Amino acid sequence: MSGQDLIDAGMSQGSWFRAALEAANKVLSEGGSTADALAAARAHQPAPTLPLRSGNDVAIHMNIRAENAHEQDNIEKVSATMRELVRTPVVRAAAIMPDACPSGPVGTIPVGGVVASEAIHPGMHSADICCSMAISIFPDVSPQALLEGVHAVTHFGPGGRPRGAQIKPSEATLTAFQQNPFLREMVSVSIDHFATQGDGNHFAYVGQMKSTGETALVTHHGSRAPGARLYERGMKIADRFRQLLSPETLRENAWIPAESEEGENYWSALQTVRQWTKENHFAIHDMAAKNLATKVGDRFWNEHNFVFRKSDGLFYHGKGATPAFDNWADDATDLTIIPLNMAEPILIVRGSNANNGLGFSPHGAGRNFSRTAHIRRLREEYGADSRGLSPNNIAAILAKETNGLDTRFYCGSPDVSELPSAYKSAANVRAQIDHYGLAEVVDEVVPYGSIMAGDCQSNAPWRRGKRKG
């Protein structure tokens, strides 16, 4: 039996491997089974050295207040999950943003959560690594023309672009994928999914700058399949360390020690996925510009699902939280982007590096209800029967909530779980940004229209075929 056999069995490499291998191979030499040999090896695994903290050991900065009973329930759930999370031994501080909402079992970082830690926690940046915002100004283009131009070139929905229509990332980014042990098997999928936007709450939004009247394109999406696959690998590696270092820690909060070989490679992989995502945004913007035979003016971007390392040596995990501290990245500007919903302006803000926010601001308006719960509420409001919302119901909801905006759904069917009523009050979130001193609003993108994936499942080709049959 070799050290690789122990690693494949979920054990994390260490000085104890020598004694473990001797014991395992002794069992095998005496005719024992592989399972018995592995059990003998595990007996040499070091005992847990990092117990869970008390739930009150780590400060949680609450930058959120309830405006109604539903929001009070939401805050209680968010507080409970964060209180369990901060028991993780390597966590040093936490903050909750005004747009916070639960995102999993108790102990899972909420959307709108910020956690400072000594290590890297894949579960705290989630599968949508580097979900982010990007804006480009199109000075000489009308909003209608830009929305048409973007619609002609972007790609929403599951999967990537079809063969023959794929677009490659830069050679530098592809080379970085090839050189990283966590990413080298993802080169093909990094091409398949390039210049795509996915589904859910991701969008392409066209509006006009409040300050100048210039037309702007804002896109929202993450790292697609490359990020999701890196997350899966990161969670498996983190769980191996969890079993070795702190088995009591929740699997969702498992960590990769930054100083380990795995930690260094994972950190490098995160930076490569970040570069891929940035290129992904601006590839769509540039394709729209080419389609319209025009040039892009100013542009910038920022992520809000990522891990940042500050000068204090800690890793700051923003799960749906926008960096608001100086020099948060090499390509950082002093401005970041906070969307609210498709019917509201997108905010251009200058971060305030507030201590109570751990240097972060909100990433949007957040939810008080899950998608399923929101749809159930709409069905009750519009008197839908057991078959669900009718086309007439949906048309009435769109007319009420989008207020004459040019709202489009790439897959053909609207996704009512992403309409404005699914989100918290934009006015309340703006007021709380100001109240807690998290950022300064310096400009707005006033909405003209937007494109989202829509309900890709209800009109999927396999469903259409089944209905015809």
UniProtKB/TrEMBL annotation:
Top-level taxonomic group: Bacteria
Catalytic reaction list: a 3'-end 3'-phospho-ribonucleotide-RNA + a 5'-end dephospho-ribonucleoside-RNA + GTP = a ribonucleotidyl-ribonucleotide-RNA + GMP + diphosphate
InterPro entries in UniProt: RtcB, RtcB-like, RtcB-like_sf
Cofactor: Mn(2+)
GO MF, any single term: DNA ligase activity
Cofactor binding note: Binds 2 manganese ions per subunit.
Binding locations of GMP: 339-342, 363-366
Keyword Protease: no
Keyword Nucleotide-binding: yes
Membrane-traversing stretches: none
GO terms classed as biological process: DNA repair; RNA processing; RNA repair
Alphabetically ordered keywords of this record: GTP-binding, Ligase, Manganese, Metal-binding, Nucleotide-binding, RNA repair
UniProt-listed Enzyme Commission number(s): 6.5.1.8
Top enzyme category: ligase
Pfam families: RtcB
List of catalytic residues: 363
Name of protein: 3'-phosphate/5'-hydroxy nucleic acid ligase
Lineage: Bacteria, Pseudomonadati, Pseudomonadota, Alphaproteobacteria, Hyphomicrobiales
